[in-house]
Fold each of these.
Amino acid sequence: MDKFKSLLNITQQINEGISMIDVNGVVILWNSFMEERYNIPASEMLGRKMSDFLEDTISERVLNTKVAMSDVYYSQKHDFEEQELYGYVYANPVYYENEFVGVICTEVDIIDASELSKELEATREKIKFLENEVKSLSMNNFDKILGKNRAIVKAKSIAKQVAKTNSSILITGEGGTGKEVFARAIHKYSERKGTFVPVNCGAIPPELFESEFFGIAPGAIRGGAKAGKSGIFELANGGTVFLDEISELPLNLQVKLLRTMREKKIRRIGGTEEININVRIISATNKDLAQMVEEEAFREDLYYNLDVVEINLPPLRERKEDIGLLIYYFLEKQCKENNKPFLKISKDAFKVLERHEWKGNIRELKSTVENMVVLTSKKTLDIDDIPNYILDSVSKNKQMEIYPMDLNEAIKRLEVNKIIEALEISKGNKSKAAKILNIPRTTLYYKIDAYNIE
C-alpha cells in the first residue's frame, strides 16, 4: 500500500496527463494535470465510469479492442472563459499475469509541446549561428582597433559614448575601412545580452528578404522545416543587427524594415502571432545616403531612423601615421596563423608599403601582408616580396608627381626620386642602380652626396 501511495504521489508531479480505468471502465487514476485540464476534480472522477463525464474517449475504445491507440483531439474547456484544448493522447491496455486489468492513458498538451518545440528550434539555430561567431566576437573590440590618427580616435570616442544607448548608428566609410569591426566593438561594449547578427543587405535576394528577416511559421512552406525557421530579428533579439551595405536594400523592402524598427514587432511568414523584438540596429554604407535620399533612391524616413548617430571612418590613405602600426600588427598575426617565426621587414619594403594608396584600405593591407608572409622563404621581407601591382602603383604615383615651375628645382626633385627608385630596385647596390639610370657610377656617387640621399 505504501508503494502504491508513493506511485500515486509521483504521478501528481508529472507535467502531463495520466489516467487509468479498470475492466469496467471505472476511473482508478486521475492525476492533477487531468484535474486542471478538464476541470473535474479526482474526488468526483475516482470510482465513477469515465463515460459519465466524457464521451467516446480513447481509453474506452482501447477497453473494447484491447489494442493500443494514439490520437490528436480538440475540445473546449468550459471555465470562466472558453479555452481551446489541443492534445495528443496515447492509450495502452494493461495486463497483469496475462490477465487484462484495464487501460492506462497519457496525454500531452500540444500547444505547450509546440511552444517548447519552437523554443528548442530557435535555440538550435542560435547555437549553430554562435558557433560561427564565437571567434570573431572574442577578437573584435575597441582594443583591437589600432590607430593614433585623429579621425580614428574621434570615431572610437563617439562609438564608446553611444554604445550603451539604444540609438541606431550609421557607420560610413569606404570598403575595407573596418565598419563591421567597429559594429562588433560597439555591440560588445554595449553589454547587450543578445547576439550580434551581421547581414549583407546586398546579398539577400528580394524574394527571400521576408523569410530571412522575419522567419517562417511551422508548416507555412511545403517541404520546409516542420518547426519553422527563426528570422534574423529573432536570432538577434536582445542583441544587435548589423545591416551592412544598407544602400543596396530595395525601396519596397525599406518600408518593411522601417515598420519593424517603429513597431518593434515581427510576424513570421504564414504565422498569426506577433513577436516582440528588442534589437539595436547598426547599419553601414560606403555610399552617400543623403545624396541617395535627394535622388529618391533611398527613403528619407528610414534614413533618419538609421542615422541617429553617424560615425565616419577615414580611408587608410588619410591615416599615413597608422600604416606602420597596422603592418607590424598584421605581420605578427599572419606569422602566428601560418606557423612561421616572426619575420622582419626591410626599411625599403616598409617605405614602399607606406607610399601605396591602399584603395582597398585595411582589408587590402591585411591581404598584402598575408601574401608576403606565406610566399617568402626569407627571414626578412623585402621589396621583391611585395606584389607587383603595388610596386607598379607606387612607381606610377611617383611619375604623376606635380613638379614646380622652377626648372632647376623640378630637375632636382626628379633626379632624387629616380635615384631612390633605382636604389630600391637594386636593393642598395649602387653599381646596378647606375646601370638602371644609364649614368656613370661616379656620377651617381656625386649626386647621392649632393642631394644627401641615404
Amino acid sequence: MLNRKEKVFIVSIICIFSIKTPLVLAMDQDIPSHGITIAESPNLKAYTKQWETAPRITSHYDKNNPASCSPLLTWTKNLNAVKYEVEFFTTLPDDLQNTQLSRDHIYFSRSIYSNGYNPPLDKFAPELLGKQALYWRVRAIDYDGNPISLFSVPEALYTDPAKENMKAPILTARYNQGNGTTLLYPVYSWIPNSGAKQFEIELLSAPPENHDGITPSRYRIAAFTTKLCDYYDKQPRSSSKPFYWRVRSLDATGNPIGVYSKADSFTVTPASAWQTAVYGDSITHGGGHMSYGPADWEYSYETYLNFPVINLALSGDTSEALMDRFDRDVLPFHPHYLIIMGGTNSLRGGYSADSVIYNLETIKIKCLKNNIKPIFLTLPPINPENIKKVFGENSAPDWQNQMNLVNQYIRSQVYIDIAAALPCHNGILSDGLALDGLHLDVVGKKIMAQTINQVWPSITKQADEQTLPTENSL
C-alpha cells in the first residue's frame, strides 16, 4: 500500500525528556524508525485498564559482566507498541510503581521506535560511569502517547570505561531466514547509535574489505541517505550472487559518527525456482502499526503461510504500477502461481474501478501468456477516519463503491476472499485490524494467511485449469 517514505504524511515529533540533574544538558537522539514520526501526547497518567505484560529486558550488565559506557539495551518486542519509553535512575525510589512514570528519574526518553536503545549515558550520568550502577526500565507506548504496558522490572546497569562503546548501528533486517523473508524490494532497518541525526546505507556486491571504517567500499553498488531508521529500496535486487549491506551514522552536517556497521547479506535469485510468488502493494510487501516495516516478519502475512513464497511486492504501488513492472519483476522468476492483491492505492486516490479492473485483467493475461497461474485476493476495506488521523490524507468519497466493483470483478476470477474474512462494521476496516486504517496489523495478517492456507489445495487446482482467452488481444 503506501510507501512510508514517499506516500505518508509525516507528523512532527516532539521528544519529551526529563533531566533532574542540573549539570546535564543532554538531548536524546531524535531518530524515528520505519518511515513515520509520531506526535507526542503529554498524557502520562496511569489508566485503570487491563495492562499488557511488561517488556522483558534481554540485555543484562551486572558487576561481573558490565557494559561499556555506551551500551546497547534490549528488551522483548511488544507487537502492539508504536514506541517505547525508557527511564533511568541513580537509585530506585521506595515508592516506584510499574504503572506510572517516576518523578525521581534522572533521565527518560519516549522517542524509541524499536526494542533496542543506545542511551547517551555520557550526557546525563557521566560522573557515574564506571563507578556505580544505574537502573533502568522500559514500557510500551501507543500511537497517542499513552502507555499500554506495565514498566519492566528495573534492571541494574553497571559500566566499565575499558570496554568498547557501541560505535555503529545494529542491523535488524534479517533476510532469507524462513518463509516469506525473501524480498525483491528489500527494506534496510537498524538500531541507531547515540547522537546520530542521519544515516548512510551502503549496498555492496561482495563483503566489504574495510571493516570498522568510515570510507566507502570498493564493492559499492549503491548508497542511500535517510533521517529515519529504515530505508525502502526503490530498485529490485536480484542476482545470482548475494548482496551485502551496512549502515553508518552521520551527524547533522554529514560527518560520520563512529564507523560502518557489520555487513549483512541477502540473496534474491530466480535460480531458486520459486513455485509461488506474491505480488502487490504494501499490504503484501509487509509492515503495519506505524512502527513496523516489511522486515518485521510478524507483520507479513507470508510468514504465516504453509508454503514458501517469494515476495515481489512494492510499497506504494498502484494497480497501474503493478501492471507496468510485471515484465521486469515477475517474468524473471516465472513462478507457477502468482498471488495478486492490488488496487487499493488507486481507488483511495480517486481512480475508477474500471481503470483498476483493466490493469488487473492485463496482469492476468500477462500471467496466462507466460504459463503463470494468477490467483487474486479481494481487497480489504479501509478506514478513512484513521487514514486522515495518521497520514493527514483524505480518501476518495466513493472509494467504497469503487472497491465493491473491483471486488466483484475479482470474485469472477480464480480468487481467495480476504475481504469477507475480515470482520468489519458497515464496510469500514476496524481499528483493531489496522491502526492506520490501511495496513493490516498482526491479527489481520494472520487472518489473511489462515484464509489462504485453508483453500490453497483447492484454489491451486482451479488456477491450474485457467487458459488464455482466445479472443484477448493483449
